[in-house]
Amino acid sequence: MDASEREQYRAAINGDREAFEMIIRTHSRILFAIAYGILQNREEAEDVVQDSLVKAWKMRWRVRDPEKFPAWLSMIARHRAHDLFRKRRSLRFPDEAIQPSEATAPDTAAMDQQLHSALATLPELHRAALTLRYFEDMDYQTIENTLGLTNGALRGILGRALASLRKQLRPALASTD
Amino acid sequence: MAIVHDEIDSWLAADLYGELSTEEQRQLHTHLVDCAACRKNHQETKTMNKILEETLAREKPSPNFEQRMLAGFRNRVPQRAGLGRSLIDLMRFRSVQFTAVAAVLLALVQVGRVFTLKSTTTPNARVHYANEQLSEEPSQIAGGLVPARASALDKADELAAGKPKDLALAPPPPMSAETRSTTVWSSKASPATVAPAETRQAEFAKQTGAAEEPKAPSADTYRANDTIEQAQVTNRKLIRNATVELEIVSFDDAIQKITALANEGRGYVATTSSEKQANGKLRGDVIVKVVPENLDRFLQKIRGLGELKNQTLGTEDVTKAYFDTDARLKNARVMEQRLIEMLKTKTGKVADLLQVEKELGRVREEIEKMQGELKYWDSQVQFATVTISLAEKDMEVPAAFLIKERSQLALYAPDVEKIYNDIKALASQTVQITNAQLNRDYSGRVSATVSMLIAPEESESVIARVKSFGRVENFQTQTERIAQDGSPSAVGSENAKTKRDKVELNVTISREEQEQAFQQTSLRIRTSSVDEKTKDLRSAAEKHGGRVRSSTFSRDPDGRELANVSLRVPMKNYPALMQSLDSLGKVEDVTVQRQDRTGTQIDEANAPADVSIQVYSQGNIVSHQSGPFATLRRTLAQSAGAIMWSVRMIGVAIAFLAPWVIAIAAIVWITKRIIRARRKL
Predict the structure, then answer these.
(1) What is the average per-residue pLDDT within B385-393?
(2) Phi and psi at residue B626, in whole multiples of 5°?
(3) Per-residue pLDDT reduced to its tens digit, A52-110
(4) Beta strand ranges found along B251-363 (DSSP E)
(5) Which of B393-402, B541-550, B606-615, B651-660 has the lowest mean pLDDT?
(6) Would you call A54 and B77 a contact, using CB atoms and an 8 Å cutoff?
(7) Are residues B92 and A61, on separate chains, in Cβ contact within 8 Å?
(8) What residues of chain B lie within 8 A of the CB of A28, using their CB?
(9) Is the CB of A42 less than 8 angstroms away from the CB of B59?
(10) What's residue A173's pLDDT?
């Protein structure tokens, strides 16, 4: 984290709105990826990001160390998404929740369905790592920083995530080949 | 190679995301060439990646995602400016919180100081006083500064606690006829003695050294402190003095009591002197110094010691003079300093130097004078001086007595003015009118007062004549025997001469109507025709020499008639009137109230008696107050009243409980919020 970034976080904590809006510009996609990784639903993820930002602004004075601001922001989004996820599970059947968000061709729709089911079986952290990778094209180091993982942990996580998906989608993969 | 095979999933993923180093890539490719299973996995992973990329690309946030987030944020958190907002923001920082707490504590300390400031002046005054003690008595100083100070403080303590030992006056020794004993103990620092005392103290301060100095600062420091404190409490410099002249039974007893009272008032007895007189009685003066605040209380108590003959109380405001002198003193000190500088630096002509020396001498003299003045004022302001002159009772035997007679006469008359003029016409050589007044108030009531002095031999006849002018309501005579040289209650003076003085007579005349009735009667008469009977009643009253003072007549909706008549008749006609009332109807509820005035001579036959009569008829048999409807109405009204009362009580209860309920609810709500917030983060 360079000095200007730290300065920005500090200003945001001290109530500088412009600095906070700049953080919204740079961080909302990451937050979205995290939320989507958990919820697998765009609308809900967007809501979560929005809520998290508002909450972060109101609670910003709780952060003592500006260095930890981005990690804190991600944490809020993760908790929030988690809350929503739990609430949704108690309301609906999980199968219903996982739906393709756009109308697609029948075969791709079937593929989507399968992929989403497979993703749903993954641990939350794995899903979040995957979405960060595919949405934001982040390298391992950045993903680790964002999710608060130790150095090198991501390599195993992504490997296991891909392997798990591969095993579940093996029949479909065979047909596409 | 085995490593690659075991962890093929991670390697493949890392390869896919370009996270393998060149060396690692080489290793992976070598292994893939060898291992068919891993090759298959590699192929599948690539396909997986493609599918994921395709699928997740559709789920990616739209390009204007950030803009939407920003807009939403701005919408939900409106920009709030203003002092309140920034204050709230500010209060969230720990440093600001600490500062605020510190500020509040400081403010509390200041408030506390304001309250306690008054009491802190007392010990200070005590120290000041002890110091004066110190400067007064060089012998004590010679014995060592610190012990002397301690003992002085002890003495001051005793004074404050009202327990004098050796300081205050012990009961004075019995005095012989010709001795005149004077005990003097004064804390007054006279101008002449102060300056040397001060220099002595300065020397001692030097001798005791720097280590002792904080313990025993010079008198000047204390004085300065004291003046500042005093100036803070009251900026005024008031000198209060009082003189009291008392006649007491025993001189020694009085001195003892005065000493005790002085100690009570945080003061002391400064001087006493006594003198034995030719008749064997003691006479003397006591000068007491008390704290000004306690002066009034002290004087009040002193009065209880004997008979007060004379008392004066004076206050002198020296504020202006004091501060003027203070300012002049400061100027003179500056001047002195300047002259000293001149002597040090200037090496001019001898004549000039002499001139400067002379001037310096003059300035120093002035300074000393002013210092003395200030000290004198300080001592005067600090304590109020009470001079008590005591004289034992019964010093002179009265030579003769004078009999003084004073009479009060109250008359009632129908025509005040006429009587007033008649009495005034009595004036002659033996009757002297000293005061005559005729008053008429706004309601037209007339009253008069006449005061006269009558020669003793004429008094009986004149008073009898005045009495005959009207009806005597009250007559009182007071006789006083006065010793002619002014001391009353002379014992054993049977052989003294007695003389009668002029008789003083005060007459008040008022109209008969104003007279209070000697007897008041109230009764009710029930009859069928109220109007007619009332007329009969009026004529009966006139026949018996009575007058109708007021009458009312009313008829209520039930057909009941009611008349109130109030009459006044002379007492002698009262029984006859009462008898005639019986013929008017059934007399009920008779109450008689009589005012017996003791000690006054009353003309009973002519004294007025008030009779108030209520004549009423029974009216309709069934009134609106009974019957089913009235009962129903009453019941409803009562129940409505009861309901309203309980509603009011509920309101009171709510008003009583509401603040607590709201406070508890607020606390619960806040606690819940805090717990929830903790859990979420």
Answers:
(1) 84
(2) -125, 180
(3) 999 888 888 788 888 888 888 888 998 888 888 888 776 655 444 444 444 444 556 67
(4) 268-276, 282-290, 307-317
(5) B393-402
(6) yes
(7) yes
(8) 65-66, 69
(9) yes
(10) 66
What does the pLDDT look like over B568-586, one tens digit per residue? 888 888 888 888 877 777 7
Domain regions of chain B by residue span: 2-58, 119-390, 400-514, 519-616
pLDDT, chain B, mean: 75
Chain B residues closer than 8 Å to A101 by CB? 58-59
How many Cα atoms are found within 13 Å in the side-chain-facing hemisphere of B502? Answer: 14
Angle at B648 between CA B646 and CA B650, to 5 degrees: 70
Smallest CA–CA distance, residue B70 to chain A, in Å, is 7
- B9: tokens are 């999933």
Contact A111 B13 (CB under 8 A): no
Instruction: State both tokens at B497.
Output: 């001469």
A140 to chain B: nearest residue by CA? B19
* Exposure on the CB side of residue B524, measured as CA atoms within 13 A: 8
CA B84 to chain A, closest CA, distance in angstroms equals 14
Write down the architecture of domain B519-616 according to CATH: 2-Layer Sandwich (3.30)
A139, B14: Cβ pair inside 8 Å? Answer: no
**AA identity, residue B623:** S
CA atoms within 13 Å, Cβ hemisphere of B584: 29
Of B7 and B401, more confident: B7
Contacts of B677 in chain A (CB under 8 A): 59
Closest to A31 in 3D by CA, of B70, B282, B506, B453: B70
How many Å lie between the alpha carbon of B103 and the closest alpha carbon of chain A? 22
For testing the chain A interface, which of B4, B8, B9, B24 should be mutated: the one with the most A CBs within 10 Å?
Answer: B9
Distance from CA of B85 to the nearest CA of A (A): 10
> Which residue in the block uniquely carries the two structure tokens 């934001």?
A136
Kindly list the structural domains of chain A, giving each domain's residue range(s) and its CATH number in brackets, ordered by start: 1-97 (1.10.1740.10), 101-177 (1.10.10.10)
Say if the ipTM goes beyond 0.85.
no
Q: Which residue of A has its CA nearest to B69?
A: A50
Question: Which residues of chain A does B66 touch, with a Cβ-Cβ cutoff of 8 Å?
Answer: 24-25, 28-29
Enter the pTM of the model: 0.35
Buried b (16+ CB within 10 A) or exposed e, B253-275: ebbebbbebbbebbbbbbbbebe
Specify the higher pLDDT residue, B149 or B553.
B553
Helix (H, G, I), strand (E, B) or coil at B566: strand
**What distance in Å separates the CA atoms of residue B405 and residue B506, rounded to the nearest whole number?**
11
